[in-house]
Amino acid sequence: MNRELRTALIGMTVLALALGVGRFVLTPLLPLMQADDGLTLVAGGWLASTNMFGYLLGALLCALRPLPPRASLRIGAVAVTLATLGMGLSTQLEVWLAWRFVAGVGSAALVVHGIAWSMTRLRAAGRPLLEHVMFSGTGVGIVGSGLLVVAMRPLGVSASGLWTTFGIITVVLFAWIWRRLGGGEATAAANATATFPAPRPSGPAWALVATYGLLGFAYTIPTAFLPLIAEHQLHLPALREWFWPMFGVAMTGATLALRWLPMRIDNRSVLAACSVSLSCGMLLSVAGRGVAALVLATLLIGIATMPVVMYTMREARLLAPRNPVRLIAALTTTFGVGQAAGPAFAASLAARTGGFALPLLVGAGVSAIAMLCMLIRTPRRGTAIDREVAPCRVPRSPAGLRS
């Protein structure tokens, strides 16, 4: 295996564990926790939001008190592993809230430094298209976790047993990448900037930050409760757990397929299209009837979710080409604010209205606003970010590599 592919696979594994397990594994386990432990919908919403609050704090710490990448990645790995195992060792809501918070902090450290670590090395090696492999990690983690729940639930495995199983899986996978994390950041960053210059960003930084925060709020509404939405819409509990791995397949497929997107299509156009796809998926979840409609809605939401992260981070590298960690941390912080608000808002509103229709309509509206932000295309001069990166901007790469 060549070094660049190994780098992409390590980044993929980091995202699979940080987001597929540390963040999103609650989604397929939420109905089981309701059945096994009597967890209420509102309490489930707070579990999801508490995880997002931890994610927000972790991103802030990465921005304000940055540690060396190797230390941050290893601390994040330990936090996600302990928190996942801890969820299976208790049935008390207060303990669960604490563990989900810890998992959120660890996930943020892994995401901020894992993305920066992988992207920098792949750019330095002239293999930016392998970023699609790295960013597919979240979808891979979701597919794997969803299929594991589908396979083990008929065997009578409890929610706590599944949490423990996921904890053991994180131990094994983090053990594989432990010694490979970190090292050589400055050299890779210098090579990436000097050898493979990037085109200019296609819009202002504030619009990118606003869009990322808005989409962070919107996408968590369906993703935090997808199996419950499926059960409520279809009244077929046997099918509900299949929608989560289906969502992951759509996410992974879209992330890998976008490598063939024409290079003339810039990052913000892709983000605008993702916003439309999210909005249409949520509207179809409300207006559609039957299995086919919900399958299509799930696919529309899934194909947009990870490209939002990938193309936001690519645009961030254009705005801060020499050292994107601080900007990535700032974007992750804004994203975390939206994510922290989304699940608690949706669960509370769904409990009051007796369904997820109104929360999904709100999410669709917020996604539409995000799309409008991406139509603002002229970069503004004079901001702090512009002043920082202006000396670093260089002409388009003669090789035509897409960023």
Beta-strand portion reads under 5%
Q: Kindly report how far apart the N and C termini lie.
A: 25 Å
Radius of gyration: 20 Å
CATH architecture label: Up-down Bundle
Order of helices and strands: HHHHHHHHHHHHHHHHH
How would you describe the shape?
Answer: globular
Count of runs of 4 or more consecutive helical residues: 17
Question: How would you sum up this structure, described in words?
Answer:
- This protein is mainly alpha-helical.
- It has helices at 3-21, 26-37, 41-64, 69-87, 93-124, 131-135, 137-152, 159-177, 185-195, 205-234, 237-240, 243-257, 267-287, 290-319, 325-353, 357-373, 384-389.
- The two termini are 25 Å apart.
- It has a single domain (3-391), classed as MFS general substrate transporter like domains (Growth Hormone, Chain: A), CATH 1.20.1250.
- Mean pLDDT is 83; it is low at 184-197 and 382-403.
Keywords:
403 residues; mainly alpha; Growth Hormone, Chain: A; 17 helices; 77% helix
Outline:
The protein has helices at residues 3-21, 26-37, 41-64, 69-87, 93-124, 131-135, 137-152, 159-177, 185-195, 205-234, 237-240, 243-257, 267-287, 290-319, 325-353, 357-373, 384-389. It is mainly alpha-helical.
How do the strands and helices of this protein lay out in sequence?
Elements: H1 3-21, H2 26-37, H3 41-64, H4 69-87, H5 93-124, H6 131-135, H7 137-152, H8 159-177, H9 185-195, H10 205-234, H11 237-240, H12 243-257, H13 267-287, H14 290-319, H15 325-353, H16 357-373, H17 384-389
